Amino acid sequence: MTERQDNPLAVHVRECADCRDQAMPVEALSAVLDSGALAIDTGALSQHALARLAPELQRRADALFWRRLLRALAVALVPLPLVVIADLRLLAWLYDAAATWLPSGLVAYLVLSYAASLVVLIGSTYAAIPLLLARPVAAAEAAPA
To answer: How many domains does the chain divide into?
Structure first.
């Protein structure tokens, strides 16, 4: 048999004084080790590994989603008091401005309708945060493999 230059066993025998003196059957051992290579079906191995890891990957993805959600809600809730104060001032100004020309019942209806629409708008904005955070995860799952 011809000896490969990159064979680690042959390199060791050349460099080690004890192994050089004892004349081990390096070529026979190399042939046995080289012939013992197994054919591995990488596709089946990958599918099996992913099937075993899927629950752990899902658990980690869920934990990451909730951390991202809490972080996004915390950042989004910081300006909320300022928005509410600005809206209350706007509603008070709107009431005062409209009360000079319109009856008080109609002005109250207009201001309360505007306030209700602001509540719906702000509520839907905060309700959209989890949906927007979940969108990249759902897109990754829907992508073909």
So the answer is: 1
